[in-house]
């Protein structure tokens, strides 16, 4: 057995005894300081020396002195004891503090308009959280939450998935978006069935807002002249400004609507914005802080 392998047998108690003897220069005084019997202390020092494969002290008549090996390891032993003594405090700080990794997903019709503006405030408050953000379609994000690849996802509710916790944050009103100069631009409200000769601009399959738009049109028994599918809101708003068609858009995308008019639907319609997480997953302090941040922002939004 090598010296390194034998050294694996020592413990913190033996290092404490070793440092006490080195400090006092006496086995007797060290035992008194530690409140133990001297034979017990001597036995543990002997086991430590046996584990290291060398003597740590020179036993003289009325005193003991460190050997060169004892001097070499004394500072390291003291540092190990200090680290061990500080461990409970470090553990409490880690348990109470908000830190660690957090993986967040969001759909494209929410991330840039709602979630992104909130991230600066969150990272400013919780600087020890390692935040990762991923954009994806609803079905993709649901699968990643279920598989544990994401801790939480901000989506339009409801979604399908056994074992998910779904929490609504707020309702995002839907509007009819028309170009400036449109016959309805000055209307306070509009019924979709009045738009039978219009081209409807919608997002491509895979976007939950597409399904919500078509559901609103079905409930209103609206019949459009045709449909045009786009990948993103930017394209839809550009086409509206060009007079190519109309669309149904959420209120949070209002920042893109320059050159368009947003008209309230009659009856009113909205989408449910919220988050999903895995029910059986441990709720870390970072996740708790993030969902709390979302709830605070949602409450502020409702008040305005």
Your description of this structure?
Helices cover 44% and strands 24% of the residues. The chain has helices at 3-6, 12-24, 27-34, 38-52, 68-96, 111-125, 138-146, 208-219, 233-241, 285-303, and strands spanning 57-59, 64-66, 100-106, 129-135, 152-157, 164-179, 189-190, 199-203, 226-230, 246-250, 260-265, 270-278. A hairpin with a 4-residue loop joins strand 1 and strand 2. It is rod-shaped, with a radius of gyration of 34 Å. It starts with a helix and ends with a helix. The model is unreliable at 1-7 (pLDDT under 50).
| CATH architecture grouping of the largest domain | 3-Layer(aba) Sandwich
Rounded mean pLDDT score: 89
Q: Might you state the CATH topology name of the largest domain?
A: D-Maltodextrin-Binding Protein, domain 2
Q: Could you estimate the helical fraction of the residues in percent?
A: 40-55%
Low-confidence stretches: 1-7
What is the CATH homology-level superfamily of the largest domain?
Answer: Periplasmic binding protein-like II
Strand content: 15-25%
Could you give the order of the helices and strands? HHHHEEHEHEHEEEEHEHEEEH
> In DSSP terms, counting alpha (H) and pi (I) runs of 4 or more, how many helices?
10
- Over all CA atoms, what is the radius of gyration? 34 Å
Q: What is the end-to-end distance?
A: 74 Å
Estimate nothing, just give the exact number of structural domains: 3
What overall form do the CA principal axes indicate? rod-shaped
Query: What's the CATH class of the largest domain, please?
Result: Alpha Beta
For the sheet with most strands, the description reads:
10 strands, mixed
Based on DSSP secondary structure assignment, what is the total number of beta strands? Answer: 12
Tell me the structural class. alpha/beta
